[in-house]
Amino acid sequence: MRVRFWQRRRGARRGSVRPATTVALAFAAGLGMAAVPAAADILYVTDFTANNVYQVDASVAGGSLVNFIPSFSSPIAIAIAASAGHIVVDGIGGAPKIYNTSGTLVGQFSQAVSIAFGMTTDAGGNYLVADSSGYLSTPQGLAVGPDGTAYVSSRGYGNVTKYSNAGVYEGVFVANVTDAYGLVVNATGTVFLASSAAATRSWHMTVPAPC
Predict the structure, then answer these.
(1) Looking at the structure, do residues 15 and 78 belong to the same domain, yes or no?
(2) Measured between alpha carbons, how far is 15 from 149 in angstroms, rounded to an integer?
(3) Contact 48, 71 (CB under 8 A)
(4) For the chain, what is the domain count?
(5) Per-residue pLDDT of the chain (211 residues; tens, 9 = 90+)
(6) CATH code: domain of residue 167
(7) What span, in angstroms and rounded, lies between the C-alpha atoms of 210 and 183?
(8) Which of the listed residues 73, 97, 131 is the one where a domain comes to its end?
């Protein structure tokens, strides 16, 4: 796995992007990635096979790699709560663990999860975890929109479902997706979904404005 960045061209039409840089660092199985909002070039990557969590500085030519959390058993999901200075990582079984920005373990969740493929934070600093042991079938992506709506991509069901900021199910947002994986929502409320569909790897959908 190699990390690649994309950016919109100034004045380009919506959805038009160009490759900005490729970080020439290989990971055995990089399943999770998170970025520090205030430092766009600092990334964290979970390597499931190597049992490590890496910090990547993309501002350095070719990328600078630091083994941020060594010997973490099968890390998958990762999320950053910038306001609290916390980085949360989860693997298979057990409770998600909380680290500070120096990579020191400072705590963990009170409840264990089965397999957390998706994890994020909302505007209130709450952590949201997509756990495979619930009603979702192989949830992969989890993101929160600017209005607090949460979106979850389910590879097993081939759809994206949405939930209110109180956790109430609001229905299927998009259906019939071949292998729905990564999911993000930008500041304008556009949802981007990556799938393994042969014709379309990713696309965007505009979220209707709240009433």
Answers:
(1) yes
(2) 22
(3) no
(4) 2
(5) 454 444 444 444 444 444 445 555 667 776 777 777 666 678 888 888 889 998 888 777 767 788 999 999 888 888 888 777 888 988 887 889 999 988 999 999 988 888 778 888 887 778 888 876 666 777 888 888 888 888 888 888 888 889 988 888 898 988 888 777 777 777 777 777 777 654 333 444 444 444 3
(6) 2.40.10.500
(7) 21
(8) 131
> In sequence order, what are the residues at sequence separation of 6 or more whose Cβ sits closer than 8 angstroms to the Cβ of residue 199?
none
- Does 1 lie in the same domain as 100? yes
156: DSSP letter: T
My answer on whether 85 and 162 are in the same domain is: no
Extract the tokens encoding 50.
Answer: 């190597």
Enclosing domain of residue 33: 1-131
Contact by Cβ (8 Å): 186, 169: no
On whether the CB atoms of residues 89 and 107 are closer than 8 A, the answer is: no
Of 131, 149, 178, the one marking the end of a domain is 131
